[in-house]
Specification:
heterodimer; A: 120 residues; mainly alpha; three-stranded antiparallel β-sheet; B: 242 residues; 10 helices
């Protein structure tokens, strides 16, 4: 995706608000390793462009109590850290979804409105 | 020793070092948490790559992205959190104990300060200035005849080695020329003879123009200038990262 400077800045601000909830949503289906979260989010190049930016985010999520981490022993290598959603995290995600859907629909409607549409 | 493995380790350590500098103004525990997460990411990514492909590390580091960008993102999050404030302390994590909930504690400030001082923008030019002054003094009074020159030289070396603005390779080269060479008899400006030559006009009456000693001094002075310019430029560039 090639963006001009203005679009890049816009996208940065949009990302900052929504990205945390995308991470929480990924964990809704079960625990995940950092690497897997990074790959999932960077797949389409829209949500994150550099995978490293995930880690400050995960640190903040953990400090806010929305996510917790644990270690899984592995027979083939060193223990790996994985991330899990907490109850607060699930609640925060639900709240975001309740706010996001109407917001997204409203923006889509506004963008799709014909010129001089029914503003009355 | 498998040299591909060594190269991998060196590349990773370089990246993590740059990242640590970029994150220098974060609270210590937060910075260490981010770095730990990224180290684990790298280990995971390389562990699942069984080949000895030397490009594998570059690939992983490239997708992780520029440390400066990661740090900018981290700082942006610190300034404008969109998450609720942290809840009262809970149990049930197996993480290293988090000693306080406040983002900045007095001990964080104390730990971050010496690092920031040595990463200040005056450090690269100031260090080279100290070497220049020490060199000039030692030319006038002889190296062992001027304690101030020795003091300046030592402070310059301390700044050089202690500052996070230079990488190990750069510090090594700089220490060889500005630390070891002077002790071995090469003056700090790469040949005090050249100053003698300069103050006596074009032709040095003792050595004669074109004598190997004068040429060596000129060459030494050139090396000193090149090294200083290089060290100041790479060091100063990193100031904005920290």
């Amino acid at each position: 995706m090639v963006l001009g400077d203005a679009e890049s800045r816009l996208l940065t601000n949009l990302r900052r608000g929504a990205l945390e909830y995308c991470v929480l949503a990924l964990l809704r289906n079960g625990e995940a390793y950092g690497l897997d979260i990074a790959h999932a989010l960077s797949a389409d190049g829209v949500l994150i462009t550099s995978e490293g930016t995930l880690y400050p985010l995960l640190a903040r999520l953990r400090r806010s109590g929305l996510v917790t981490t644990s270690w899984q022993e592995s027979t083939t290598g060193p223990p790996r850290r994985y991330y899990q959603l907490t109850t607060s995290g699930a609640e925060a995600l639900d709240a975001f979804e309740r706010a996001w859907k109407p917001f997204r629909d409203a923006v889509d409607r506004a963008l799709a409105a014909p010129p001089n549409g029914n503003m009355r | 020793m498998n040299s591909t493995r060594e190269r991998r380790i060196a590349a990773v350590e370089r990246y993590v070092h740059d990242l640590a500098i970029a994150l220098a103004d974060l609270p210590t525990d937060e910075r260490e948490e981010v770095i730990a997460g990224i180290r684990e990411h790298i280990d995971d990514a390389l562990a699942s790559d069984a080949s000895d492909d030397p490009g594998a590390v570059e690939g992983v580091l490239a997708s992780l992205g520029d440390p400066a960008e990661i740090a900018a993102d981290a700082r942006g999050r610190s300034r404008a959190p969109s998450l609720p404030p942290p809840p009262p302390p809970r149990t049930t994590t197996t993480d290293p104990p988090q000693t306080n909930a406040a983002p900045h504690s007095a001990s964080d400030r104390v730990n971050a300060q010496p690092r920031r001082l040595l990463a200040h923008e005056w450090v690269p030019a100031g260090t080279m200035m100290l070497f220049v002054l020490a060199g000039a003094l030692s030319w006038m009074f002889g190296f062992t005849g001027s304690p101030i020159a020795i003091l300046m030289w030592l402070i310059g070396l301390a700044l050089l080695l202690g500052s996070p603005l230079w990488r190990s390779t750069e510090k090594f080269v700089a220490t060889l020329w500005f630390g070891v060479a002077p002790v071995a008899g090469v003056s700090l400006l790469g040949g005090g003879g050249v100053l003698y030559w300069a103050t006596n006009g074009m032709f040095d009456p003792y050595y004669g123009s074109g004598s190997p000693l004068t040429l060596l001094s000129l060459a030494g002075l050139a090396v000193t200038i090149v090294l200083m310019v290089w060290l100041v430029s790479v060091g100063s560039k990193r100031v904005s990262d920290s």
